[in-house]
Fold each of these.
Amino acid sequence: MTGPRLPDGFAVQVDRRVRVLGEGAALLGGSPTRLLKLAPAAQTMLNGGRLEVHDAVSAQLARTLLDATVAHPRPLSGPSHRDVTVVVPVRDNISGVRRLVSVLRGLRVVIVDDGSATPVRESDFEGMHCDVRILRHARSKGPAAARNTGLAVCDSDFVAFLDSDVVPRKGWLEALLGHFCDPAVALVAPRIVALEPSDSIVARYEAVRSSLDLGLREAPVVPFGTVSYVPSAAIICRRRALLDVGGFDESLVSGEDVDLCWRLNESGARLRYEPIAMVAHDHRTELRKWFSRKSFYGGSAAPLAIRHPGKTAPLVISGWTLVVWVLVAIGSGVGYLGSAAVAAFTGRRLAKSLSSVAPEPMEVAVVAAHGLWAAALQLASAICRHYWPIALIAAVVSQRCRRVVVVAAVLDGVFDWITRSGYADEDTKRVGVLTYLLLKRLDDIAYGLGLWTGVVRERHAGALKPQIRT
């Protein structure tokens, strides 16, 4: 694991969810999960899970911990806001872009009017204390093209892309810029939250389950990780890195942000998700438009699968773990006995793989149980979201399959409701569990509909292919 040297004073903190095994001999965790063995010298450098860079050796260890995704950065103060240009793509949303520019005081702003029926004019932004420049496409070319047009006229080291329906909250820029102290970081994204509380059922659901809200926990942005991409509704990029990968792919109707993240990953750049920084988004809350948007997101999976084979897998699971849950689903005494036997065998394999760090038997049992539970949640989610047309047919023709689908739907929905109960602001009224289950199922149906439509349109089933690992 290599990368540009981290500066002195830069610190990293081991994620609190990472398990310390063998009295500090190894760290188990990260996203995706991995085992990182530590040399005795490295163990002594970690003080309470924290490491501060002060020489080449500590810089290399900090880089290793970051790249293994078991630690998070605690950077120094970052670049100045004077090093940032904000690019705003807009089409037929003058009120939104005015609202946005009104909070970008002192920043350089490039607005790209992507073929609005009523052109955006400089006079629309008089007295807003921003250096505003307006570019215009005579006809709409899409948000990716609009962002590229804005990028082309920027000469600052960093470019922030903000959609016209967002409003950054106080301190967002400083929290994001700090990450660029790491010279390997090419892109940083904030958490996207609801703009205003509402009594609408869909709005209350979106406040905790928006596709744009990636949660409360900081994370690296890596395929198959906790955060595998970030939405381009609000991101900051290192301009040079963005130009080196060719900017946004203008041929993509949707998913251009996912594609950009993965191309940056492939180039060796690091990407971060920073939920301390928050940007509010004006969510779609009218049921028909909400359903259509969820389906629109699903339609990006097939084109992305063509460009990035394997990275859109709806399910990434150990073959042995899959066998355990298939046997449980069979439901007979033979199935339960077989699942217990396979689980015991899997536990022994896990213990053998961890033997070099001499874990306690209970540590092995906890790790194995965690893996089985995570796999169950993955399977339940995939059944209800990606494979629901198949699950529906199976439920109609088989009573046993019907039970499995019902259990999966309830497990996935209730666990998701519990997990996301703390996402909403205090002013937002909580959604009841039954209502949440119904909206979650509609959410998944919409996404799956878009996914399968895209698969048929592209004649490529890569977005439906699971990854089963040994």
Amino acid sequence: MSVDTPETDDIPAARLSDVQAGDTRERLLGARYGQALPEAPLPWNDVIGTMLAHRSVRAYLPRTLPDGTLETLVAAAQSASSSSNLQTWSVLSVTDPARKSRLAALSANQNAMREAPLLLVWLADLSRLQRLGDERGRAVDGLAYLEMVFVAIVDAALAAQNALVAAESLGLGGVYIGAMRNKPIEVAAELGLPSQVFAVFGLCIGYPDPARTSGVKPRLDQRVVLHREQYDVAAAQDYVADYDETLLSFQRDQAMAQVPWSERVLQRVGGAHSLSGRDRMRAALDALGFGLR
């Protein structure tokens, strides 16, 4: 894909914004894939630009968030789709430095949790429907099935992503903390979670420290993840080697340890030892009141 970018003084005002948008599109798509996409007439707007500019932010300025930011992010989260409108998620905000530090200690000691002024813990929450059934003397046996845990986790993820996009549109940054699942029972105790509530992940939110920024990490080529009509196994394998090289180049630019993507992901799924305690998730869910069937 290529877009001509002449001097802006030579462009009529009516077309200037289109040229600038095209330049932004080229830059963001190039960063996201580590290369230009094939020529295609791609629709574009500021929302898409915000989404493609996403990067994980693990270093934050010691700056408080404006009043109303939390409530705005939750409103955005609640605007996400919810399966059958069951709304089987909740979110818990943590700003107390001592509590954030304790949670970080339970989550692989990720310092972003300590630095960020706001930590949002996204919860799969079936307890609300359980209480509703108890109060009205109604059976809620369906809550005990694995499907309902899937629903709650998916709903929490959709809501959290809405909140993160909203935060980034406000000039904030964030990073997800999946390591909150390393010790789910201890995290539940720290947060005072009732039965049938589970911390799916954390989300740090704050103002990025410009002195410690990271680049936009390239993703797999669309030809690996995008299938049309039916799954194409051959296409899914053809471009992995190219992506290994793209990610190695990114790692060099970011002064990161250089490990090919294919090797890193195989290490990550090598066995129970590589799951950082999450291989015991089924037992943890049972202990947290999810009587799964």
Amino acid sequence: MSVTDRVTGLVELTRPVNAVAAGFLTFIGAFVAVGADVTAVSGGIESPAIRTLAAGVTTVLATGGGNAINDYFDRDIDRINAPDRPIPRGAVSARGTLAFSVLLFALAAAFALVLPALAIGIAVFNLLALVAYTEWFKGTPGFGNLLVAYLGGSTFLFGGAAVGDAAASATLFLLAALSTVSREVIKDVEDIAGDREEGLRTLPIAVGERRALLLASTALVAAVLASPVPFLRETLGIAYLVAVLPADALMLYAAYEGFSDPTASQTHLKYGMFLAAAAFIVGRVAVLVA
């Protein structure tokens, strides 16, 4: 295996697109909380711009580390479900993957040190929750999905906490968590063969695929029904409401599609979640320029 293959494998372990996307969601959380002040550099290391940047980098590194350690713990399952991933195909070793994830977590911790206490607390809790999930709770019906949903939604909460206003990003956190739990359950349906072979007891294995998909759809419908809350509370204006409608439509379609094609469903759901995040940006910008 060449050096290029090993480097490529290490990059793949981080799921770079997902890691950068998570960092962007942290930025959105900060932007929704403080608006244009997110670019302010006055105050040095305590300025909103520096803290937003530090929070974004922390999220990218921690997400990359989390994805890597997930592959470490899932290496046996991936030989069935995803044989082209770096460890099963031999691009990186299990021990090298573990060391790489520890390095990424250490770098994330270094960047987090410039953030307020609440943001640091969220970062520490998330790290512990991530390790606990990969080691103990991944195969726990429902609870593992809820834990991942929290971790997904907390990127917004972390962004708000980084600039001193976590409460402003709370609605974003809730909507993202509901959408993420739906996507995670649908993914469990997709991976049911390998999970059953490995002896895991995921939600679809415990209650059946159809019931699991019904629960996933219920969570997604709840997220769609809750999406107008920022408009109704007059936090965001009509521009947000218009922008979030395509996201809602795509996510509802993904919920329906999950019963026939879980792979396509979770892809469309991911796109819908990104559209919803973009709607918050549109809504915040519209408020600022009004």
